[in-house]
Amino acid sequence: MIATTPISQIQLHPGSRITIPGVSWAKFEQILEQMGERRNTRIAYNYSTLEIMAPLPEHERCKVLLADMVKAILRIQKRPWEPLGSTTFKRQGIAGVEPDECFYIQNYQAVIGKERIDLTVDPPPDLAIESDVTSTTEINAYIALGVPELWVYRANHLAIHLLRDSQYVESLNSLIFPNLPLCDMVPQVIQRAKLIGTSQALAEFEALILQSVL
User: Fold this and answer.
1) Confidence (pTM)
2) 44 and 53 in contact (C-beta within 8 Å)?
3) Position with higher pLDDT, 6 vs 53
4) Residue 179: CB atoms within 10 Å
5) Alpha helices of the chain — where are they, by DSSP H?
6) 129-164 pLDDT, tens per residue?
7) Is residue 21 part of a domain?
8) Residue 103 is part of which domain span?
9) 3-class SS at 64?
10) What's the CA gap between 64 and 69, in Å, rounded?
11) Is 114 contained in some domain?
């Protein structure tokens, strides 16, 4: 007799991931339901390929800091936003992904008060953030969902990906924050946080942003 473990019950070590080809959309939906929302893994699905990832502990700290930086900029620039964290976004039959963090900025009004996002009627998030190695499956899922701007932070480097003609093009500048040299600033803040603490590093970052709007 061959013992099998349901995909939803697979235990991954922090920092590891598995890729499973040939997963139907119905099976993907079933796995999501079985896994539930309270779990320490993340998923990405694109055209029948499923990935399940277990982030490292430092990944959590980094993603929170990245989100705090985005909120600081928006607050100082007096721009409204709606944060949806690691909401599961799906395009029926094609793709599904859970960003580390995401924000509705230009389209914030479209999701105010909503507990579920339906991409057949709702827009995708304006900005998604990944603070770990992002796979081809994840990247393609974001493309399929139509997320216009994706940040990927890894190895002390921020890559800004802008959606152009159904592909991501790496850019030195953000469309959402075009006047800020974020590819330089973000790694510096994250490194400072390791030296002086998160709150102090964020305070320094906010002071720099304030100077830019004066």
Assistant:
1) 0.90
2) yes
3) 53
4) 10
5) 25-35, 57-76, 136-145, 182-196, 198-213
6) 998 777 888 999 999 999 999 999 988 899 999 999
7) no
8) 56-213
9) helix
10) 9
11) yes
